């Protein structure tokens, strides 16, 4: 086999090799390293020896972990749902309009996504803060009683959902809008000639044709919300009590506040598995083969 | 032709990626920031060095020393400015040593150091929080200072810095750290409000509650509901709360001799109950305390929401710089006691500055740690940074400085440390005990658990985690 033929056969492999090595180093190696660590007692990063599945057993037997997973799923699904529904509504509305208003709405919608997550969340914290927050300042100015948010379990969960949805509405809107712009006008006109009303055009033509951006946005937002640590940490700090103690916060504290690195590794593996399940579940639910 | 161009572009991109990979694998961690030295010449010099040699170790005869601290030498605050000046002076005197500061979030710096130590790429100098000094020593992460510079010190020089801070964390007679930013938990209070209402410093806890009740009102100037006493029970950015003082007053320690939690008992219950009664019974603390961080407590104090808060004395200059009212009104007082005789003990804290045991430039790092507490540097920390002196000679030299009413708080802190200071134990790990006590407060306030149940739960967690 001459060099030219060898090069022809393996050039693709050689060209992708550095990229694959990079992915292996930054994704695969840490993954297996975490998996390996999860079978050891690593309190304060001191090797306390092999403990088998004890770290996993202690996680499964801890009601706080179950609660944390539960509240994470609730917040993730609710915020992604709100974001997708509002994003779709805005996208459909903008799709029918041109000019400055549509441009401004796109711009305003995208701002929460493009500004720093930390800055946006700190602003919300300041706005909603009890006695010194902007919201209560206005309420008091208008003669209303101030409202309590961060001391109430329910209000904290609802607020977290709203802020996480606020952050991502612009993203879902733009993704869906991009899909809508790709819909062939000829199809829409043909449907109208055939007597289809607006609702029928939406449900039988537009939505089926934009299911790819909807599906992709939903997956991205779900993953983003599920693993989001910044917004819950800054907005509610997981509180009051453990009301908004989402799994990423629990994981962060387990490792970097309480120094239980073995258990934190085990929890990381569980979170990773849940992420995988989410992706598979969504793809299968929609029965769409990416 | 087009296909050939694409192939060449792919080959070139692959080559670039490969080179990046190789460079990434071979490079040591690149510091994120230079020392922030203010003069132009030094900055130009620093930037050129950052490009070529700013990595830990020795390059072309120049030793680069990386340091993690929460201070930023380029910042305008007192401590940052003091550090910047000390680095500048040191680098002038030691042209072959370059100090590279990598400012960190104070709460995450120590866990990051532990992780970096395990990974073998920790900074040469670390500012380790006092709470975790026991764990740092157990990990063997710090080099004894006797191996670096203390072996050359005379008895007189040692005597100048010999105090409870210097002896903190000693093992087998070896010293591993010099405590900077010496801190003491005390009450910040608004002297202007005390004067306005004709109140005096409370000597007992009962008087304290009465004073706080007198100060709880709607501020007529700002319209803000002001509370007599601000507390923060969030588990992030945690400072010890008053139940610590109440516990220490009664039983002297928070832990047993074996390193187990010693707060799930009658004394602990009384202490936690008193702390929470400030919200539920006395009405001097807002319910918002359950989810407030230590950082936010200071911000809200500066905004005028509280008349008194509990916090680390080290922040007085920063708080004074932030307040919209007369900065001189921010004063410190020690904790009261149950019977009015003396003061309830409070936590001594600070940052243990040491040299990483795995450093390739230990001698240079040790030299800078030594320079950080030289007589000149110590004076800068006090006068510029508003910190307590490390050296007794500095305190004597700066007698007039301490007499200034604005610096009165330094004498109060020194009094507290000497007469009512509680250094945290280092013979066993005590990680996150403050978080645990705050969790107990949250369990009672938010989850409706009983005081005893909450304390038992967090004591169990502490023991399991720290192997007590």
Automatic annotation (TrEMBL), chain A:
<keyword id="KW-0813">Transport</keyword>
<feature type="transmembrane region" description="Helical">
    <location>
        <begin position="101"/>
        <end position="127"/>
    </location>
</feature>
<dbReference type="GO" id="GO:0005886">
    <property type="term" value="C:plasma membrane"/>
</dbReference>
<feature type="domain" description="ABC transmembrane type-1">
    <location>
        <begin position="69"/>
        <end position="282"/>
    </location>
</feature>
<feature type="transmembrane region" description="Helical">
    <location>
        <begin position="261"/>
        <end position="283"/>
    </location>
</feature>
<keyword id="KW-1133">Transmembrane helix</keyword>
<protein>
    <submittedName>
        <fullName>Sugar ABC transporter permease</fullName>
    </submittedName>
</protein>
<feature type="transmembrane region" description="Helical">
    <location>
        <begin position="133"/>
        <end position="150"/>
    </location>
</feature>
<dbReference type="GO" id="GO:0055085">
    <property type="term" value="P:transmembrane transport"/>
</dbReference>
<feature type="transmembrane region" description="Helical">
    <location>
        <begin position="157"/>
        <end position="180"/>
    </location>
</feature>
<keyword id="KW-0812">Transmembrane</keyword>
<keyword id="KW-1003">Cell membrane</keyword>
<feature type="transmembrane region" description="Helical">
    <location>
        <begin position="12"/>
        <end position="32"/>
    </location>
</feature>
<feature type="transmembrane region" description="Helical">
    <location>
        <begin position="65"/>
        <end position="94"/>
    </location>
</feature>
<dbReference type="InterPro" id="IPR000515">
    <property type="entry name" value="MetI-like"/>
</dbReference>
<keyword id="KW-0472">Membrane</keyword>
<comment type="similarity">
    <text>Belongs to the binding-protein-dependent transport system permease family.</text>
</comment>
<dbReference type="Pfam" id="PF00528">
    <property type="entry name" value="BPD_transp_1"/>
</dbReference>
<dbReference type="InterPro" id="IPR035906">
    <property type="entry name" value="MetI-like_sf"/>
</dbReference>
<dbReference type="InterPro" id="IPR050809">
    <property type="entry name" value="UgpAE/MalFG_permease"/>
</dbReference>
Automatic annotation (TrEMBL), chain B:
<feature type="compositionally biased region" description="Polar residues">
    <location>
        <begin position="47"/>
        <end position="60"/>
    </location>
</feature>
<dbReference type="Pfam" id="PF13416">
    <property type="entry name" value="SBP_bac_8"/>
</dbReference>
<feature type="region of interest" description="Disordered">
    <location>
        <begin position="30"/>
        <end position="60"/>
    </location>
</feature>
<dbReference type="InterPro" id="IPR050490">
    <property type="entry name" value="Bact_solute-bd_prot1"/>
</dbReference>
<feature type="signal peptide">
    <location>
        <begin position="1"/>
        <end position="23"/>
    </location>
</feature>
<dbReference type="InterPro" id="IPR006059">
    <property type="entry name" value="SBP"/>
</dbReference>
<protein>
    <submittedName>
        <fullName>Extracellular solute-binding protein</fullName>
    </submittedName>
</protein>
<keyword id="KW-0732">Signal</keyword>
